[in-house]
Design a protein that fits this description.
The protein is of the alpha/beta class. It is built from 20 helices and 22 strands.
Length: 622
């Protein structure tokens, strides 16, 4: 942000307002608590600088300044009022004037009047999924025999087979993107190093890892898992399938594995590396890759193992009769100094973090420490990086959850040390790309539409065939008396659940464990009043559901109008504590809790058998 003084000097208040409006910034808004907020001038200037306005370091390169994107309906002629040269996705080229010919689903581009226009030929909407149910849980929380290591990809296949026998149509997990082995303390699945690569902590090697009890000790686990991977790689005799896979992955994989080797040598975060190694195209980086070819091969092999095992889990789920199979979760952003930003620096805004204004999930607001993708770069590059990220997920699942899909409409950017504001995002184009990728994969998409919801977003999701989320503890008549909504009032095009990974479990909500935690952190003005209000809520929900046990909750969910129902594994296992407490990092053991039951115990649990019967009676087993 070294150019901020220039921006401050050049822009009067009127010019600043105009520049902000042209860049799609919203700096005055109501937060999730209904309070009026206005970001200061310093925040607005910092966000403009991150978008390259008055900041040469972040300006679009010349090749992208006359490039944009446009959504077009697949299979229909496209109005065009000038001469054009069309290149289809398959490389076929034609020239003409006037309407463009019908285009197949996919990505094409035209050159016209000095502009490159990327054409996103999308189907109008995704089809509705069958009425079904499934289970969601954190993969890291799975264990069998010993509370050691982390849940593995083969365990995922084991669990999917067991759940399929009970009639579940999907098994959902937390994000499994590549993380930071060089920094075991950075283990949030929602702050990944690279969203197109997989977390190798879940690769099964057959080694005995240290037992750490109900909470995962990441320092010990990462060290032991890395040693197990090294030993397995040392015994790897080679495989033509591996060589073919590595060759097919091309430069994108080579950059990732180069980053991984560099992080071993110089630390987890590239902004702390020597300057000549911060550029993936530098001669120093190319020399490093040649000299460390064996280390690059190790990291390629580890990714291949992860993909092979995850693919096998999805195949086992489908073979067992699980109609949708795995349900993966795409994190909303990526770490500002991880593998993804190192390889594709220009895709991301620097000096700002994604986050959220104050709302029910985070009363103090949230700063996530994630790098936002730039809307101008997305448009100028035809959304190629975004499409590749979606494709990497759909390769292994039938159902994809988009974390914080509110960011398709507008993202909340927080400059370093300053309050945040909203940046408009290319919603229609991003939804078109999502439809293209889901259609090609034969999959379905869910958007986490919780929080401060922009006007029109839920309608746009519905028109696109993207399901929303309906969380029972928040499904209330907020415009009236606040009563919990009956099952028939839930949206049809949605996934209904009790909570999420950021919310208390069924048992924890009833006991007020989230209130206990917030009180211990000094965040509550009147804990006694909060507990009294919770007791009233519990009584009201029990009255609506016809009981206060887990079966009553699941009958309520099974009877909703929503197409899909997600039953949480933590509730089936009787867990009281939640996986993550929003707004905390080390004050709460986020992402560390194992399930109270081993995998086999979960599959055979009475709670699962009862839930399966409830879902079958409600017609959710196909």
């Amino acid at each position: 942000m070294s150019n901020l003084p220039d921006i401050q000097n050049e822009m009067s208040d009127n010019n600043l307002d105009r520049a902000c409006a042209e860049a799609g910034l919203t700096w005055a808004y109501r937060d999730g608590a209904g309070r009026w907020q206005e970001a200061p001038v310093e925040s607005r200037r910092a966000v403009l600088a991150a978008l390259g306005k008055g900041n040469p370091d972040a300006a679009l390169p010349p090749a992208l300044r006359r490039a944009t994107s446009r959504v077009v309906p697949a299979g229909q002629p496209v109005d065009w009022g000038a001469a054009w040269a069309l290149t289809r996705e398959d490389g076929q080229q034609t020239e003409g004037r006037g309407p463009l010919p019908p285009l197949p689903v996919g990505y094409h581009h035209v050159l016209s009047e000095g502009w490159t226009v990327h054409l996103l030929a999308a189907p109008p909407a995704l089809p509705a999924p069958p009425r079904a149910w499934g289970v969601t849980l954190p993969l890291f929380a799975l264990w069998q025999n010993r509370q050691a290591g982390m849940g593995t990809y083969p365990m995922l296949g084991d669990l999917a087979q067991g759940l399929a026998r009970r009639g579940a149509a999907f098994l959902g997990i937390n994000p499994i993107h590549a993380g930071f082995p060089a920094d075991p303390g950075n283990y949030s699945p929602y702050a990944p190093s690279h969203r197109r690569r997989l977390n190798t902590l879940h690769v099964a090697t057959g080694a005995d890892l240290p037992e750490t009890g109900p909470l995962i000790d990441y320092t010990a686990t990462v060290r032991a898992q890395r040693a197990a991977l090294e030993e397995a790689f040392a015994a790897f005799p080679g495989d033509p399938a591996f060589e073919d896979w590595r060759g097919s992955e091309g430069q994108a994989l080579e950059r990732f594995i180069t980053h991984q080797a560099l992080s071993e040598a110089y630390g987890a975060y590239w902004h702390l590396w020597p300057a000549e190694l911060q550029d993936p195209d530098s001669p120093a980086v190319q020399r490093f890759a040649r000299e460390r070819a064996r280390r690059l091969r190790f990291h390629a092999w580890a990714q291949w193992m992860a993909e092979t095992q995850l693919s096998a889990a999805q195949a086992r789920a489908r073979a067992a009769g699980m109609g949708l199979g795995l349900y993966l979760d795409l994190a909303v952003g990526t770490h500002p100094y991880g593998a993804e930003t190192w390889a594709e620096r220009g895709q991301f805004a620097q000096g700002v973090s994604l986050g959220a204004p104050p709302d029910m999930l985070g009363p103090s607001g949230q700063r996530w420490g994630l790098a936002p993708m730039r809307p101008d770069v997305l448009r100028a590059t035809g959304f190629a990086a975004f499409a590749q990220t979606l494709r990497a997920q759909f390769r292994h699942c039938g159902l994809l959850r988009i974390d914080h899909i509110l960011g398709f409409e507008r993202s909340f950017w927080l400059p370093e040390g300053l309050p945040g504001l909203y940046v408009a995002m290319p919603r229609d184009e991003m939804l078109a790309v999502l439809r293209i990728e889901a259609t090609r994969a034969g999959g379905y998409a869910i958007g986490e539409d919780l929080g401060t919801i922009p006007d029109g977003l839920r309608n746009a999701l519905a028109l696109a065939g993207v399901m929303g989320c309906r969380v029972a503890m928040f499904e209330r008549d907020w415009q009236g008396d606040g009563a919990f909504l009956p099952p028939e009032s839930y949206a049809a095009a949605a996934l209904a659940s009790w909570g999420t990974h950021d919310l208390p479990t069924w048992a924890g909500w009833r006991a007020g464990r989230d209130i206990d935690w917030r009180e211990s952190l000094g965040e509550l003005a009147d804990p006694a009043a909060d507990r009294a209000a919770r007791a009233q809520d519990v009584a009201a929900f029990d009255h609506l559901a016809g009981g206060g046990d887990l079966a009553a909750l699941h009958r309520h969910l099974a009877g909703t109008a929503s197409a899909l129902v997600a039953v949480q594994g933590e509730d089936l296992a009787g867990a009281q504590e939640q996986a993550n407490l929003p707004g905390t990092v080390f004050d709460h053991p986020n992402w560390c809790r194992r399930l109270p039951l081993p995998l086999s115990g979960l599959v055979d649990a009475t709670s699962l058998k009862q839930t399966a019967a409830i879902m079958q009676q409600a017609g959710r087993n196909g």
